[in-house]
């Protein structure tokens, strides 16, 4: 450029920056200054950089995404073949792909990122950043094999450049993808490969601690995916210790830790979000282990922290955490017999999903919402609505485990409504599906429980005992307390039915102790009915009266709560079976009312990767049950920021 052109260019840039940083910013004049640069027909580098700057300004300060996209596309076309222009070229590619993603045009984002990755092999920072971004794009589109292949390329690339920290991130990210694909053996292999690198090859203590949190989150989720609640305890404790180290007052800020050199400017999540995530996996563990009080306590703390972070900057990942936590707390309410709070929180979860950008969360969590509504409908004896909700879940989900649990719910519906042919058909289908998901202790134990329940209803008591003993063996091995308590109370009822009062008492006593510890009002309701009959058989009137009074107390609490919840406008959500969920209906005349007979659910721990819950229904002394899987694998939601 001539000196006069140079002076005009610098002046316009200065003015643009002045208007951008004014209070309040004058974005219109800022954009006009940048656009004025094109009248001087600047060199390609200047033109490309200006298009990039305009794209950045438009994306940050306006809603004119089409104009932003036009400028970024121009910047990419101009800069793609210019040498020694890495920052503009690759920043443009990354931002343009991000914009395509926001507009649900990932098919346009992928070729841009692939070309940029090809051009950036000489630049470790940009090469890795673009690999992560493209892997995330494929993972979002559920193209997990392609995402995994890109992360493997990252491992090789960082190995060649001796970027050990980045290599660890690529390995852990790949393990996360393998978890989503349920490739159990591959997950273990990659975690075993990453562990010694983190322990012995990362010299920076701060980076090491962040990697340890990432590693332990994956390890905990992996064990929970297998239903190994007991095995996971050591890893969970290590995770909780690591997060306490990171959030300590003397710990440096993320900006200080990740700003030292360009190969260390990557992190999975900032420490404030990691703090919430650790609460979340702790809640998940508490749910599976059957500690409802703990799950509620940690959920409330996590939700408080989320609101605090939202007030500072409302990042999309916070809504992801919020919806998963709500799904957990809803299950706590159902287990503890508080349906009135459960339906209000289902409605809140629905609102969170609807308020997300492009209803992204609704697309991800609608099947889980249907499953939760199905459980709620069963707890209010609305079996027709429950059936439709579980069917909607099955139709909408691509998740094998969630589909299996919805089918288990349907099996209980058919059992309760005496639809024997439908029950036989679905049990055969479940048998096939369970054989494909047999790596989960809790999942297999839950299936045995359903078979035992079915055998009990058919008065096949020997067969019921066989199935329930298998359930107990698996539940006891991994401290699945809710599965244990529900199996014990059903086994007690089996022994009561064949007149073996001694064995019945031996089963119901620990069942009631566990139920009180959880606490699970539904097992207590069922157990108190059994105890009443046992004490009558044993001619123990004082204990019989006590058991009867307990049973009346539990029953009255559940009936009162049921009458309360069915008067809420949110109760109308049970009529939502497809499409976007409706706003709550306000007219009480339009609400579906429950039948007069109370059906109380009894929760049993179950799961494959995240908490899964079996709910057992008891009507007088006739048992049924429902299943629900608490949704959301954390690692599907975010890879890198």
From TrEMBL:
It comes from the Eukaryota. GO terms for cellular component: nucleoplasm. It is found in: Nucleus, Nucleoplasm. Its main location: nucleus. Keywords: Cell cycle, Cell division, Chromosome partition, Mitosis, Nucleus, Repeat, TPR repeat. GO terms for biological process: cell division; chromosome segregation; mitotic sister chromatid cohesion. The keyword Nucleus applies. Required for association of the cohesin complex with chromatin during interphase. Plays a role in sister chromatid cohesion and normal progression through prometaphase. Component of the cohesin loading complex. This is MAU2 chromatid cohesion factor homolog. It comes from Anopheles epiroticus.
